[in-house]
């Protein structure tokens, strides 16, 4: 790409005159970032053309990955690394008096997701490009993302996230590839030559405009694309009469309603209007994506070769949000390509595959039938036919058949069950960790599993080690490569070679030095952003993830309250300096999670401002968690808190990011923690709490009594009483809703039940941390054995076992 730094400087300075008609010296830092990003994007686009020609030449099977979220993070540094030019660019910019890191900070985090689902999808795209799989993301271009989280008066407040306000240099608008999406209207039946046809009429047309973002694979050989769809009016309309009357909002009402489809990720669905908008979002993505796939297939293979479709196309739905891919593909094959039902159905099932990411009932989407009928009349008719045929073929002779039919039917109790639609309409259904898949097979979807076990399989999640280790922790990356070579960047199982350094004091010392520097870097950020001075020699105990009751940030902050109470009673208590770091967003309408955020920040106010504890404890909540903030946090962590209620976390990917960076897991036997435990052994992870079987047993027998447990434990009772007895009187109102959830409503997620064992495991973790050499060996073991959790491994398994590419 560049022959050296002199060639880079020459091309870079020339680009300013081409792009903004001003010399480099007269431009702002933002302009210098934007020009650099445009240079790299232009190169990536050319590489994509070459990649696509290669795919076309070998008639490669294409994989289309549908997801409501793609949390890409900042792309410039990632792509400089993947193209192998980061050092060249850094040195060239230094010669020009610029700092690459300062330019990198100009880039916004794209507001295209919320949490682990989106970060996983981005890692998968990275690995597909690296492995040379013809994989393409299908997502939505949210103008304001989810929201920008601000903490004011200890509470979460949501602000718009205008991440596109300065433009996005990585995207290419492709108006020539626009697709029509239809909402509402009615369906007419007509008969010709003995065949029935369905005509959708009276609908509202929304244009889906694609914006393509290049996905550069490591090594720069392959560049795939993420296609993001934006909703726009089919034609410019304005109600002139309303405008002339001064009713300006009414004049632009239709345009505003259409643009709202891709304005904000996950609009609040507590109202009918919010639910309708969410369903519109999901169908908009699906309809636009399927139209694009069909158009490309017909261009490549012709309009009369549909039997080959499953051989050349794989469509994967990431959770239930894109479940409408199933009826939409059938609709296109029936109504536009005029196939018969049986052929369309066979093609669809062979093409579709589905990943489930949850065991939480509320996350298994269901839509009211009347809403689906009104908004998507033809699609609903197809869903109705799929359900009818499923019921017709259902084995009614089996025991308990009525209950099984109720649990597996698509239409039941006035609702469309999207997970059931996804399972019935796909040839593969996978969970994302061994324990998660086991729960799906034997609990959540057990009736499906009994009837069609061949469809179910496990694909344990993975993360991009190039993003979350090499880019996020460059000094560690360099040290690893100096020790074992750089083959680990292509094959993460090579990290096992680090185990030979477990007894090397110089290597262990270097690891500690790198960890300390990363802690100093995070400490500087915290002091700048939060005004809190923290000790980099303290234990960094970290929990960063979406705020949810089952993820049990509450258990973590109760531990902090316990330690604070202990120090207040005994100032000489043997507790090493600890910094507890939290970050994550609560959904806008999730009041309990917001109360947990308020509690964490309230406890932080009390602890951080109490001079009597001698700075032994510090509590920090970092607002607006993002990929780039995660890249700052993961390398600095000592303890990785993965403490969800056993059986509730599908997999987790934060646990993997921490592991690659040498943090040590303190967690339950839940999600991928189970597989981390199997890999590193009991001496290199700290496990506590109920097992998933014990949790289910308590639910089944209903023999857990949280109030009694609390009364029998004075220290635990003190903590729960502090929620409501005026302890926080100077820091806001009391926390009755949290207290009631634990005591009155019997502690659904077993925070109180696991509390004592959690303290025991935490104290063992701290003791290990104090034994410096032992802790560093544990940390090294985790890095060395993290290779299994690369998204390269995960995607290789998807490719071979599900997509057949």
UniProtKB/TrEMBL annotation:
Q: Mind telling me which InterPro entries this protein's record contains?
A: Glycg_phsphrylas, Glyco_trans_35
Q: Does the keyword Glycosyltransferase apply?
A: yes
**Swiss-Prot/TrEMBL GO biological process terms:** glycogen catabolic process
**Cofactors required:** pyridoxal 5'-phosphate
Coiled coil region boundaries: none
The record's catalysed reaction(s) read:
[(1->4)-alpha-D-glucosyl](n) + phosphate = [(1->4)-alpha-D-glucosyl](n-1) + alpha-D-glucose 1-phosphate
Q: Name one GO molecular function term.
A: glycogen phosphorylase activity
Where on the chain is N6-(pyridoxal phosphate)lysine found, per UniProt?
Answer: 657
Which Pfam families does this UniProt record tie to the protein? Phosphorylase (PF00343)
Q: EC number(s)?
A: 2.4.1.1
Question: Keywords of this protein's UniProt record, alphabetized?
Answer: Carbohydrate metabolism, Glycogen metabolism, Glycosyltransferase, Pyridoxal phosphate, Transferase
Q: What GO CC terms are in its UniProt record?
A: cytoplasm
Q: Which family does it belong to?
A: Belongs to the glycogen phosphorylase family.
| Summary of the function given for this chain in its UniProt record | Allosteric enzyme that catalyzes the rate-limiting step in glycogen catabolism, the phosphorolytic cleavage of glycogen to produce glucose-1-phosphate, and plays a central role in maintaining cellular and organismal glucose homeostasis.
User: What's the name of the protein?
Assistant: Alpha-1,4 glucan phosphorylase
Source organism per UniProt? Zhenpiania hominis
């Amino acid at each position: 790409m560049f022959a050296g730094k002199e060639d880079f400087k020459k091309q870079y300075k020339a680009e300013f005159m081409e792009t903004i008609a001003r010399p480099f010296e007269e431009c702002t830092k933002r302009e210098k970032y934007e020009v650099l990003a445009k240079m790299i994007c232009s190169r990536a686009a050319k590489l994509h053309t070459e990649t696509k020609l290669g795919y076309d030449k070998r008639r490669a099977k294409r994989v289309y990955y549908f997801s409501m979220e793609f949390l890409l993070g900042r792309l410039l540094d990632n792509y400089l690394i993947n193209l192998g030019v980061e050092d060249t660019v850094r040195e060239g910019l230094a010669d020009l008096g610029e700092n690459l890191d300062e330019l990198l900070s100009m880039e916004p985090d794209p507001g295209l997701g919320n949490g682990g689902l989106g970060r996983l999808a981005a890692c998968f795209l990275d690995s597909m490009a690296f492995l040379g799989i013809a994989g393409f993301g299908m997502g939505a271009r949210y103008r304001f993302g989810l929201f920008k989280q601000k903490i004011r008066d200890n509470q979460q407040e949501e602000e718009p996230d205008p991440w596109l306000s300065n433009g996005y240099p990585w995207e290419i608008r492709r108006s020539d590839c626009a697709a029509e999406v239809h909402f509402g209207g009615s369906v007419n039946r007509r008969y010709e030559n003995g065949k029935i046809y369905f005509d959708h009429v009276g609908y509202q047309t929304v244009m889906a405009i694609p914006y393509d973002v290049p996905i550069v694979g490591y090594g720069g050989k392959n560049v795939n694309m993420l296609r993001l769809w934006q909703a726009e009016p089919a034609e410019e309309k304005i109600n002139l009469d309303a405008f002339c009357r001064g009713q300006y909002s009414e004049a632009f009402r239709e345009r505003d309603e259409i643009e709202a489809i891709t304005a904000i990720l996950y609009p609040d669905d507590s109202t009918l209007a919010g639910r309708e908008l969410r369903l519109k979002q999901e169908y908009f993505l699906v309809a636009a994506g399927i139209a694009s796939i069909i158009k490309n297939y017909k261009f490549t293979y012709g309009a009369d070769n549909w039997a080959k479709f499953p051989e050349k196309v794989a469509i994967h739905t990431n959770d239930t949000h894109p479940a409408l891919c199933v009826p939409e593909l059938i609709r296109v094959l029936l109504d536009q390509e005029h196939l018969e039902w049986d052929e369309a159905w066979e093609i669809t099932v062979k093409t579709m595959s589905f990943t489930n990411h949850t065991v939480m009932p509320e996350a298994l989407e269901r839509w009211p039938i009347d809403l689906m009928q009104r908004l998507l009349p033809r699609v609903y008719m197809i869903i109705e036919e799929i359900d009818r045929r499923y019921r017709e073929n259902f084995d009614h002779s089996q025991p308990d058949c009525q209950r099984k039919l109720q649990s597996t039917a698509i239409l039941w109790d006035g609702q469309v069950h999207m997970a059931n639609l996804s399972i019935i309409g796909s040839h593969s259904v996978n969970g994302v960790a061994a324990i998660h898949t086991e729960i799906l097979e034997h609990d959540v979807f057990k009736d499906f599993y009994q009837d069609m076990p061949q469809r179910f399989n496990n694909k344990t999640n993975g993360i991009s080690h190039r993003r979350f280790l090499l880019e996020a922790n460059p000094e560690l990356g360099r040290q690893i490569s100096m020790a074992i070579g750089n083959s680990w960047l292509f094959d993460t199982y090579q990290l096992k070679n680090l185990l030979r350094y477990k007894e090397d004091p110089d290597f262990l010392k270097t690891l500690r030095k790198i960890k300390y520097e990363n802690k100093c870097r995070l400490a500087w950020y915290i002091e700048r952003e939060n005004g809190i001075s923290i000790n980099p020699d303290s234990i960094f105990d970290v929990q960063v993830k979406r705020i949810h009751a089952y993820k049990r940030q509450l258990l973590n902050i109760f531990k902090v309250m316990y330690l604070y109470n202990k120090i207040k009673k005994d100032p000489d208590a043997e507790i090493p300096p600890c910094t507890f770091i939290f970050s994550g967003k609560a959904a806008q309408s999730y009041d309990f999670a917001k109360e947990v955020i308020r509690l964490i920040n309230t406890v932080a106010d009390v602890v951080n401002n109490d001079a009597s504890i001698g700075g032994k404890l510090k509590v920090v909540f970092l607002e607006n968690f993002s990929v780039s903030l995660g890249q700052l946090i993961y390398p600095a962590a000592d303890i990785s808190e993965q403490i969800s209620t056993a059986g509730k976390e599908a997999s987790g990917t934060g646990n993997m990011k921490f592991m690659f960076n040498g943090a040590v897991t303190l967690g339950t036997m839940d999600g991928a923690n189970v597989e981390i435990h199997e890999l590193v052994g009991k001496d290199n992870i700290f496990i506590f709490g109920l097992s998933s079987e014990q949790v289910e047993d308590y639910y089944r027998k209903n023999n857990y009594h949280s109030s009694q447990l609390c009364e029998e434990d004075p220290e635990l009772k003190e903590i729960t009483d502090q929620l409501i007895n005026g302890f926080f009187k100077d820091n806001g109102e009391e926390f009755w809703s949290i207290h009631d959830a634990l005591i009155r409503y019997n502690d659904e997620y077993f925070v109180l039940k696991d509390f004592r064992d959690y303290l025991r495991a935490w104290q063992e973790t701290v003791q290990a941390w104090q034994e410096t050499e032992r802790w560093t060996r544990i940390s090294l073991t985790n890095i060395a054995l993290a290779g299994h959790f690369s998204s390269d491994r995960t995607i290789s398994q998807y490719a071979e076992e599900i997509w057949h590419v």
